[in-house]
Amino acid sequence: MEYKINTLFEEIGGSETIEKLVTAFYPKVYRDPDLSPLFEGDIEEIKRKQRMFLTQFLGGPTLYSNEFGPPAMRHRHMPFEITPTRARAWLRCMKEAFEEVGLKGDAANAFYSRLQQVAGIMVNTEELR
Predict the structure, then answer these.
(1) Quick check: pTM over 0.85?
(2) Cα–Cα dist 20/79, whole Å
(3) CA atoms within 13 A on the CB side of 31
(4) Distance CA 105, CA 50 (A)
(5) What is the pLDDT of residue 128?
(6) For the purposes of burial, counting CB atoms within 10 Å of the CB of 31, is it exposed (0-12), middle (13-18) or buried (19 or more)?
(7) Do 26 and 47 contact (CB within 8 A), yes or no?
(8) What's the pLDDT band for 102 if we cut at 50, 70, 90?
């Protein structure tokens, strides 16, 4: 008997779902007054990196590491002031994107739980006054 363990990447629908999620997510980020100051530069490149990271993060191909080396997301984001408020805003935008693309069920819940952990780790600045 052969057992196949699916990754979260496979369980949520693979690259097609990641594409839909990233496409739904970034307009929300750019409209958010807490988050928009953090996102400068080519939105298409930002989206490309996010697709690559999320693919790898969920157990899919190691696209991000293949091009940029280990993700080390906390280190890569240190130049940006990520406050608890900004982490919550990021999660809110992601949750709205999940809802927009119909990402739900056990795999989606596990994915979102992992994102909550990441958001907490990313905080590197106390609330701005």
Answers:
(1) yes
(2) 28
(3) 9
(4) 22
(5) 62
(6) exposed
(7) yes
(8) very high
Contacts of 85 (CB under 8 A, 6+ apart): 34, 127
- The domains of the chain, with CATH numbers, are 10-122 (1.10.490.10)
The structure tokens listed for 11 are 């369980």
CA–CA dist 56, 84 (Å, integer): 25
Q: Are 8 and 111 spatial neighbours (Cβ–Cβ below 8 Å)?
A: yes
Quick check: helix, strand or coil at residue 127?
coil
One-character DSSP codes across 55-103: HHHTTS--HHHHHHSS--HHHHTTTS---HHHHHHHHHHHHHHHHHHT-
**Which pLDDT belongs to residue 129?**
61
- Residue 23 tokens read as 């496409």
